[in-house]
Amino acid sequence: MSNSLHQPAQNNPEKPDSLLILKQYPLFEKLSHGEYKELSVSDNYKEAKQGEFIYFEAFQHHLIYFIKTGYIRLGYLDDAGQRITKDILGPGDFFGQITLERTSLHGEFAQAFKDSVSLCSFTIDHFSKLLNSRPDIAVKYSKLIGLRMKRFENRLINILHKDVRARLIAFLKQLLQDAVKPRVISDYQVTITNYLTHEEIAHLIGTSRQTVTTLLNNLQEAGICIYSRKEITFFNAEKTLNNI
């Protein structure tokens, strides 16, 4: 097992535009300079290289992380010691002790995924203090937590009640919906950046890599989408994905 499992991401000096970057996202758009300082972001700014672990087996962890750039893979080790992906998060997402408890991450790891990532983090105590003093931010945060839980719930419901093809279609629709910068080529064609392998998709929808490969090939033959290592192109996406 790689030594990087035991080497957490290193703190780096705060970038001067860190507050401005945070204010680009709805949760922090009205954050004052004073409130920003109270969060002690300057003490908890991190950059992690591809493959580096932000935390691993984070029992009693006390931080909430906010992703500025890059992607984070959340996962766990199965009984055979294999790393299983349970979610992929991108810019604007948050992770860590999002329930504001210190014991909810037992068994979870967070890893810089596909590329380097830029993060800031807050302690539970500092963030709770901000939420107590800013009900508007607390409401927004609660809604974001609700949406996150709903996404997990929907994925579980799909695994329990939908066949594999329907789960893959639902997953592709969610990828398209969540894409940060989709490239609209025409009314008929949209391309998004791809950062998932067949095996990672299989983990997320509860099936095998071979099944995902077969189904993606079928969707390509049907003219619905083309999947490659770097991007996914959808044809007549809204109409097609809603009717298959």
Describe the structure.
The protein is α+β, with helices and mostly antiparallel strands. It has two domains: 150 residues, Jelly Rolls (Sandwich); 80 residues, Orthogonal Bundle (Arc Repressor Mutant, subunit A), CATH 1.10.10. The chain is 36% helix and 27% strand. The chain contains eight helices and eleven strands. The strands form two sheets. Strands 1, 2, 3, 4, 5, 6 and 7 form a seven-stranded antiparallel β-sheet that branches. It is globular and about 55 Å long. The N terminus is likely disordered.
How are the elements arranged and paired?
Layout: E1 10-11, H1 18-22, H2 33-38, E2 45-48, E3 53-56, E4 63-77, E5 83-89, E6 94-96, E7 108-123, H3 124-133, H4 135-161, H5 164-178, E8 183-184, E9 189-193, H6 198-205, H7 209-221, E10 225-227, E11 231-235, H8 237-241
Antiparallel strand pairs: 1-2, 2-7, 3-7, 4-5, 4-6, 4-7, 8-9, 9-11, 10-11
Distance between the termini: 42 Å
Order of helices and strands: EHHEEEEEEHHHEEHHEEH
Per CATH, the architecture of the largest domain is: Sandwich
Which fold name is given in CATH as the topology of the largest domain? Jelly Rolls
Number of helices: 8
The gyration radius over C-alpha positions equals 19 Å
Count of DSSP strands: 11
Average of pLDDT: 82
Let me know the CATH homologous superfamily of the largest domain. Jelly Rolls
